[in-house]
Specification:
elongated, 4 strands, 2 helices, alpha+beta, GTP Cyclohydrolase I, domain 2
Length: 130
């Protein structure tokens, strides 16, 4: 990743958030299964970094709530679909410039820790007038 791209930003993260989700193409995956979600949000740093109020930062509570609600909405055939929808939630939040989203299914294969998908997305830069 280009460190210059993210220079001056703050990273907010959610690690191994466990949700039960109906996800997968195999017959045995048609019931909800354990899914681990990881998200890194790259956000603007506040103008007043010494400000100690929640309104000065991106509150990560929205992330847990929205991901849990999304995972409960329907069956997902593909992890790719789910990570794209989580990424859209992230980029739709004010102040979020970029996000890394991954999901892992730790219980699919007995011979590996997990199978998963990860993406990195950036918000479109606002157009400048000229």
């Amino acid at each position: 990743m280009n460190d210059l791209l993210l220079q001056g930003m703050r990273r907010i993260f959610l690690r191994n958030f466990r949700v039960d989700c109906s996800i997968g193409i195999h017959d045995f995956e048609q019931a909800p299964q354990r899914l681990l979600v990881n998200v890194d949000l790259y956000v603007d740093r506040p103008v007043a970094p010494g400000s100690d109020v929640i309104e000065a930062v991106v509150d990560y509570d929205f992330l847990r709530e929205r991901i849990a609600a999304l995972a409960a909405t329907r069956h997902f055939n593909l992890q790719e679909t789910l990570v794209e929808e989580i990424a859209a939630i992230c980029l739709g939040h004010p102040g979020v410039r970029a996000a890394r989203v991954s999901t892992e299914k730790p219980d699919v294969y007995p011979d590996c820790d997990a199978v998963g998908v990860e993406i990195f997305v950036r918000a479109e830069e606002p157009a400048t007038g000229g």
